[in-house]
Amino acid sequence: MIKLPEAAQEYFPYTSVRPHQDQFIKTVYDAVKAQRSILIEGSNGLGKTISALSACLPIAVEKDLKILYVARTHRQHERVIEELRAVCKKHAVSGVSLRGRNQMCLNTFAAKSASDARSLMEVCELLKAKGRCAYHRAPEEQTYEYLQLQNQLTTRPYKASEIQRVCRKKRICSYELVKASLPDVAVIALSYLYVFDPVIRTAFFKNLDSQLQKTILIVDEAHNLPETAIDIASSSLSLFVLKQAELEAAKYENRDVAAFVNFFRKEIEKMTEKIRHEEIISPEALIEIIQKEGSISNPRDFFEHMHEVGSAVRRSLLAEGKNPRSYIHGVSEFLLRWLETLGDDSYINVASR
Questions:
Q1: How far apart are CA 151 and CA 275, in angstroms?
Q2: Would you list the domain boundaries of the chain?
Q3: For 195-216, how does the pLDDT look when each residue is reduced to its tens digit (9 = 90+)?
Q4: I want to staple 132 with a disulfide (CB 3.0 to 4.6 A). Which of 38, 127, 176, 349 is the partner?
């Protein structure tokens, strides 16, 4: 008969285990103790969430490691917090569910102005730099009440929805508050993006004041990872966006950018006019066209110039109280990404109609 490891039993909050749950816990505990990765498939109703937590918590406490519980949905994140609250009846433990910035942001202007997590991060930084966010508190503006809330988050498990309700009433940024508490929280339930998107991961671990090597990573429903990885690594550019970037450049009198985008749009139209649905294209061929036909001798320098122009447009729009979206900025990011992936066989470049 399999029994729970003694250390894991301290963190298992229930009086009995379900069929095969003890085997699940022992398998996970032994693997994490030996610093090995493990992949387990279990049916619904097995109690996988509490099994993984009770197996990992004693090792995390002993080794001073954080537990990152990565899951796809908000409901799964909240389930982690519910199980941690059950654990708290036996053993004190802290935890938070961390949603994406776009779900936690209380600034309606910022949330409406960004189409994805990366763009919201940029809009947020612009608003904070301009002093245009009523919820943001600079370090020198943090009151005793703010610091009390920050400390409170490190004492017991809290759901993101609960934190948001309190922060909305007190006019405090829920995302910034949670971010400030992360270094002192034991378990963090969060979305895939925080770990698997390179840009977001870098910022997250900086806030965490830790490294991936100093965490125990639990990935719920790991069969979703291939699709997630493709979504994170993919980007697209449409003829509509190119046309809008051309109009934007003309409006702000950036003639070199307007001329390039006009040329580039026409080349893409010629490239795709014979394509029925989609076709793999050579990434090098597109750069050669830009260099030879577009007379851009150093594409990277020019794309970076476009990026600076787009950033200036965004700052100008923000100063006017408008949505800080720049099509030039979007085009430049796509083209810079195109350059970065040249020669990388893990990427394919596709043109479609």
A1: 59
A2: 1-64, 66-77+93-224, 239-352
A3: 998 888 998 999 999 999 999 9
A4: 127
Residue 72 token pair: 């796809």
What span, in angstroms and rounded, lies between the C-alpha atoms of 240 and 254?
19
Would you state the structure tokens that stand for residue 93, as one six-digit string? 């433990």
The dotted CATH code for 239-352 is: 1.10.275.40
Classify 233 in phi/psi space as left (phi over 0), alpha (psi -120 to 50) or beta: alpha
- The residue assigned the tokens 């307007």 is 258
Q: Which residues lie below 8 Å from residue 49, measured CB to CB, with a gap of 6+?
A: 69, 76, 79, 80, 83, 220
Q: Please report how the helices 255-272 and 327-340 are oriented relative to each other, as an axis angle in degrees rounded to 10.
A: 60
What's the sign of the alpha-carbon dihedral 250, 253, 259, 260? negative
Instruction: State the DSSP H helix or E strand holding residue 78, giving kind and residue range, or none if neither.
Output: helix 74-88
Tokens of 261: 């985008």
Distance CA 44, CA 21 (A): 12
For helices 117-129 and 198-208, what crossing angle results, to 10°?
50
pLDDT of residue 1 exceeding 60, the answer is no
What's the topology of domain 66-77+93-224? Answer: Rossmann fold (3.40.50)
Cα 267 to Cα 90: distance, rounded to the nearest angstrom: 66
Mean pLDDT for all residues in the chain: 90
At residue 315, the pLDDT reads 86
How big is the chain, counted in residues?
Answer: 353
**Residue 129 and residue 107 in contact, taking contact as beta carbons nearer than 8 Å:** no
CA dihedral 260, 262, 263, 264 (to 10 degrees): 80
- Give the Cα separation of 127 and 120 in Å (integer): 10
